[in-house]
Amino acid sequence: MTFLLAPLRLFTRVFRKFGRCIFPSPEEKFKRFQERILPKTLREHDAILAKASKTRAFKNREDLSIEHKDFHQNIIQSFLNKHASSTLRILIHVPSMLHSPGGYSLFSNLMAGLNHIGIAVASWNTESGVPLSSVWESFEPTVFLTSDHESYLAAIDWDLIETLRKNRSVRIGLTASLEEYGNTPLQERLAWAKKNNIDFYYSFRAPEYVRQRYGEFFKAGFKIHSVEFGANPLIYYPIDAPQKEFDYIFLASSNPEKQRRYLEFLPEIVENYFGFIDGPGWQHVGKNWAHRETHRQLYSLAKVGINLHIDDSLNWASELNERTYILAACGIPQLIDNPKLLADRFDLRGFFIGDHPKKYLEEFKWILGNPDAAAERTRIAFYEVMSKHTNFHRAESLVRDLGQS
């Protein structure tokens, strides 16, 4: 039988090689997708990022578009220290940028909003090397926010927390998370929460969705406070650029859960148009991705802002991603798919909506061919996001909810 082994091994190698071509894995599909990106887009990435980095961090926002300046400043001033009389002192368990870029951005924006409206806020990071007890005792929080995930909870000495709470009353809140999103069995987590005297939960999803899907939390006697995404006006706002330098911009990670949508909606755009693609996970970016303080400058150089949502946002009115609010705040024409919550949060006249790949490409081409008309829609989105959906609004909502807890 040994004489059959050599041909069998050869057949196996050939089958694996050609099988990958005929039935490529998701990883292989996404690799090929990246290889088809217009060479100029890949080649110019670092130069564009370096240029934007040199012109960031303008003082007093003198780079702000004149058209939007007064309105933008009025929003900032109307919230400044608005809740300075509050006795709340909120300590937030923030993930590191390397561990969770999205989580870091999300919690940092919430902290910035709380700080701006006058709430005392501090952060603690597991990887900082500073013991939680030291931060706790020096800051003296009245509220501690962390996440209901093993990687967060395991980093906390809960016996110590119980001891510290005996000396000072502190409410503790966890993120509300369903099993279907990859977490452990919910009933076990709710039992743990009761045992450790967790006071409430909070969620970055829409309150309508929370009421519909999170019934087990309510049955267990917990409240859930919704803190939806929003835009930080101190960082994200329209600026005047001498000229648009590329056709589109897409600042997004390439997590596996997002890749299918990219493969479905973006090939003809990335293969045929010059753009700027940036974020964790892209081959041509490596670790040289843009920091958020650079994003507004990059957005100002693009003709179209690309935005796509994960399946959950398309199937449920659960959330709009942070990019939806940021693109609106930066005054760039936003090409978006059709997440279910969009019509409940925004005037649809402020967006270019493509709910399937053909329509998405058509809208993209229309924006490029009609820049003045496209600008009219960006004004609608800008004024609406600043009026209703900043991180100041979200922070204020949380403060009011905590005051009623």
Radius of gyration (CA) equals 24 Å
Overall pLDDT confidence:
91
Summing up helix and strand content along with how strands pair, one would put the structural category as alpha/beta
Major sheet, described briefly?
6 strands, parallel
Any idea what the shape is?
A: globular
How is this structure best described in words?
By secondary structure, the protein is α/β, with parallel strands linked by helices. Helix content is 50%, strand content 12%.
Give keywords.
single chain, alpha/beta, 6-stranded parallel sheet, 5-stranded parallel sheet, 11 strands
Summarize the entry for a quick read:
This protein has 405 residues and is α/β, with parallel strands linked by helices.
Write the layout of secondary structure elements.
Blueprint: H1 5-22, H2 26-35, H3 39-54, H4 66-79, E1 89-93, H5 101-116, E2 120-124, H6 132-139, E3 143-146, H7 150-153, H8 158-167, E4 171-175, H9 186-195, E5 200-203, H10 207-213, H11 215-219, E6 224-226, E7 246-251, H12 256-265, H13 267-272, E8 275-278, H14 292-300, E9 302-307, H15 311-315, H16 322-329, E10 334-336, H17 342-345, E11 352-353, H18 357-369, H19 371-388, H20 391-403
Parallel strand pairs: 1-2, 1-3, 3-4, 4-5, 5-6, 7-8, 7-9, 9-10, 10-11
Helix pairs in contact: 2-12, 3-14, 5-20
